[in-house]
Amino acid sequence: MKDYGWDEDIAARFEACAGPGLVPGRVVRQARDLSTLVTPLGELAAEVSGRFRHEAAGPADFPVVGDWVAAEPHADGPALIQALLPRRSAFARKAAGEEVEAQVAAANVDTVFLVTGLDGDYNLRRIERYLATAWSSGAAPVVVLNKADLREDLDEVVAEVERVAPGVPVVAASAVAGGGLEALLPYLAPGKTVALLGSSGVGKSTLINRLLGEERFATAPVSDAAAGRGRHTTTARELVRLPGGALLIDTPGMRELQLWAGEEDLDRAFEDVERLAARCRFPDCGHEAEPGCAVRAAAEDGSLDARRLESYLKLRREVRFMELKKDAKARRQQEKAKGRDFAARIKEIKRNKPRYR
Ligand code: GDP
Ligand code: ZN
After folding, report:
1. How far apart are CA 356 and CA 335, in angstroms?
2. How many Å lie between the centroid of ligand 2 and the Cα of residue 316?
3. pTM of the model
4. pLDDT tens-digit readout, 1-22
5. What is the DSSP letter of 27?
6. Which residues contact 188 (CB under 8 A, 6 or more apart)?
7. Residue 14 has what pLDDT?
8. Nearest C-alpha to atom 5 of ligand 1 is from which residue?
9. CA 259 – CA 65 distance, rounded (Å)
10. How far is the C-alpha of 321 from the C-alpha of 252, rounded, in Å?
11. Does residue 174's CB lie within 6 angstroms of at least one atom of ligand 1?
12. Ligand 1: which of 206, 233, 250 to mutate, judged by most atoms within 8 Å of the beta carbon?
């Protein structure tokens, strides 16, 4: 179990919700309703119990890849998942369509590599967006600037990214040539869980193949075959052990992740803006057109990149819009519940009618 990240903290979480006959397990694969767990008894197929399904408040309560659970093994069928251990981190995304319901794509990720390509994809605003998502997950972000082989001015690029990612490690690397990848090793310690986030084409698959194919990143170029062509499938939802002992989560859900952050996460991703905001004349300054706005002043004198401020304001609008939608949904649900209470009271009154006569 240690190989899959079991530690004292997880053990304590298991103790807190364990019952007789329950074993701990980590979800390593998930297909529709059936999960595969790694347990002290080996790999087990598992599904949530009827009670679990009944008591779940929403989709976010169901186990996903990376989750730890307490399950009841059965000789003649899938194990029954009775409890979900509290998550250390979770990547939530908007469910498809208009619904504003969080769906969890992956859980208990220690470090998330935010991968950007140093080619046409390179975009500081996108990095800011991914950072907000990472902070909201609870996993620690590391920005990976891939395709470093295509740029000469790496020091400048890294410095520029460090400015939009205060306090976050920034690594320039080449998944194809192998350079720079050794800087990722500290995050790939045995039992640590990592995941990759980034738009299509930035080199996530190439990097994953690298991680799967090699333990210590030799800087010599490897042939396509050695890079593990065909080994990696992008359709299965899974958690795999890398040769060095770290655990890698790669699920389609992670690949489709959209921004799902709260305002606090934004403040974390834009610490510099927050610091400036403390000097605005109005404590609730929106940094749009208010007099005495220290943030706008900084953008005007160039000490804050004006595009970064624009990006911040745009993300904030997005986050607020999502929150409004969430509030509206909660209100609708409340109204519905109220309606149900009312209907129940009427029924009760009708049932008790004789007493009133
Ligand atoms: P994904 O969509 O994020 O999984 O990206 P892929 O791994 O499929 O890579 C997209 C393209 O970028 C492929 O043509 C890769 O060969 C190329 N690529 C990946 N890593 C590097 C790199 O470090 N340097 C260069 N020059 N190209 C790379
Ligand atoms: Zn302001």
Report:
1. 29
2. 14
3. 0.76
4. 899 999 999 999 999 988 889 9
5. E
6. 194, 211, 242, 244, 245, 246
7. 95
8. 203
9. 19
10. 26
11. yes
12. 206
Mean pLDDT, range 246-269, rounded to an integer: 74
Q: Residue 322 is encoded by which pair of tokens? A: 């999502």
| Ligand 2 center to 279 CA (angstroms) | 8
203 Cβ below 6 A of ligand 1: yes
Ligand nearest to the CA of 275: 2
Collect residues with CB below 5 Å from ion ligand 2: 280, 285, 287, 293, 295
Q: What 3-state DSSP class applies to 266? A: helix
Closest atom of ligand 1 relative to the 196 alpha carbon: 3
Q: What is the pLDDT of residue 18?
A: 81
Residues comprising the chain, all counted: 357
d(CA 213, CA 59): 35
Q: Which amino acid is at 165?
A: A
Say yes or no: CB of residue 221 within 6 Å of ligand 1.
no
Pocket probe mutation, ligand 1, options 115, 176, 212, 231, max atoms within 8 Å of Cβ: 176
For 81-92, write each residue's pLDDT tens digit. Answer: 999 999 999 887
User: Which amino acid belongs to residue 249?
Assistant: I
What integer pLDDT is reported at residue 258 of this predicted model?
59
| Any ligand 1 atom below 6 A from CB of 178 | no
pLDDT in tens, 168-192: 999 999 999 888 999 999 999 999 9
Nearest CA to ligand 1 atom 19: 203
Give pLDDT tens digits for 128-152: 888 888 888 889 999 999 999 999 9
Whole-number percent of the chain with pLDDT over 90 = 49
Classify residue 312 as exposed, middle or buried by CB count within 10 Å of its CB (0-12, 13-18, 19+).
buried
Single-letter amino acid code for the residue at 291 = P
* Per-residue burial over 143-157, b = 16 or more CB atoms within 10 Å of its CB, e = otherwise: bbbbbbbeeeeeeeb
